[in-house]
Design a protein that fits this description.
The chain is an alpha/beta fold. It has three domains: about 120 residues, NadA-like (Rossmann fold, 3-Layer(aba) Sandwich); about 80 residues, Rossmann fold, CATH 3.40.50.10800; about 80 residues, Rossmann fold. Helix content is about 45%, strand content about 15%. The protein has 17 helices and twelve strands. The strands form three sheets. Strands 2-1-3-4 form a four-stranded parallel beta sheet, with helices on both faces. Strands 6-5-7-8 form a four-stranded parallel beta sheet, sandwiched between helices. Helix 3 packs parallel to helix 16 and helix 5 packs parallel to helix 6. The longest helix is centred in the N-terminal third of the chain and has 21 residues. It is globular, with a radius of gyration of 20 Å. The termini are far apart. The relative contact order is 0.15.
């Protein structure tokens, strides 16, 4: 029997709106009622499909609130998603994020179906380096360990010794017990790690197209116009931006900062959907939003998640010859700090 799906989006009937009202209560501070009319039918269908497919949705902190708070089962930064992906019992994993994250989930779940709702959801950092580049670095610096930011392709991970995230980069570098390491591909995260350790860092010249756009002058202007503003910056930002921030940390640590300290007013110097997601959970905090969007993250929509669950595609596949060494690099990362 062939099952055909219509391309017409479901109507926001009173029954659908009633069934999803509890979810709208969660996000109504950041999603207007008119917009919810379009989200509600898709959210209801996705949650039904998850049950039918024995699927979970893993959502990065940069997903929009209707995805992050209304259809996801596991949320967090790259490290949290990697760790939790390794322990899920679901048969199907939908990665609401970018392609390297879906590859990481597949590396840790080789026998499961791992879906990425849009194959074009890439990453400027992952695109900045290839496996051949890593091999050339090893020839130039023989014997020097290679640490790869998780924002890399499986092909690149396979050529490295260990992966890291922005949340554990310093810890990973120091865990190797060596005097110097090759750190790739983000030059700004490499500079931040260099400032936090005595280990010599040999960087690669990659950049995140979202974080590189922030400037110290821009952040200072926000501070001058908003009394009591607390600035939290991601270490993928340029060094001059980090220098004017009150706190520097991964997305997970930025979230923890807001939850624990409850500042009156905060500026999160990172992809702007994260401010919406944290605002849902911290109603007493005012968020100043410098809206730098990641065009790749924004390729992931409710409709594409729904379609992915309907068709169980696009599925992530990794060459076994690449998968085995890449998996080792990711598993070594996960083991650090345990």
């Amino acid at each position: 029997m062939t099952v055909c799906f219509t391309s017409v989006e479901p109507e926001p009937t009173p029954e659908v709106l009633l069934a999803t009202q509890h979810l709208y209560e969660r996000v109504k501070r950041v999603i207007p009622p008119m917009e919810w009319q379009f989200h509600a039918p898709l959210i209801q269908e996705i949650n039904q499909l998850k049950r039918e497919r024995d699927a979970v949705v893993l959502a990065h902190n940069y997903m929009t609130p209707e995805i992050f708070h209304c259809v996801s089962d596991i949320v967090g930064d790259s490290l949290a998603l990697a760790r939790k992906a390794a322990t899920t019992d679901a048969k199907v994993i939908v990665l609401a994020g970018v392609h390297f994250m879906a590859e990481t989930a597949k590396l840790l779940n080789p026998d499961k179906i791992v879906l990425i709702p849009d194959l074009e959801a890439g990453c400027s950092l992952a695109a900045s380096i290839t496996g051949a580049d890593v091999r050339a670095l090893r020839q130039k610096y023989p014997g020097v360990p290679v640490v790869a930011y998780v924002n890399t392709s499986a092909e690149v991970k396979a050529e490295t010794d260990i992966c890291c995230t922005s949340g554990n980069a310093v810890e990973v570098v120091e865990s190797l017990g060596v005097e110097r390491v090759i750190f790739l591909p983000d030059q700004y995260l490499a500079a931040y790690v260099r400032s936090q350790t005595k280990v010599e860092i040999i960087p690669w010249a990659g950049q995140c197209e979202v974080h590189e756009r922030f400037t110290a002058a821009e952040i200072k202007d926000y501070v001058s116009r908003h009394a009591d503003l607390v600035v939290l910056a991601h270490p993928e930002c340029p060094p001059d931006v980090l220098a004017v921030a009150d706190f520097v940390g991964s997305t997970a640590r930025m979230v923890d900062y807001v939850h624990q300290r409850q500042p009156k007013k905060v500026l999160m110097v990172t992809e702007c959907s994260m401010s919406d997601n944290v605002a849902v959970e911290c109603p007493n905090v005012e968020f100043v939003r410098p809206c730098n969007l990641c065009p790749h993250m924004k390729r992931i929509t409710l409709a594409k998640i729904r379609d992915s669950l309907r068709t169980l595609s696009p599925a992530v596949e990794i060459d076994p010859a690449i998968a085995e060494p890449a998996r080792r690099a990711v598993e070594r990362m996960i083991a650090v700090g345990k």
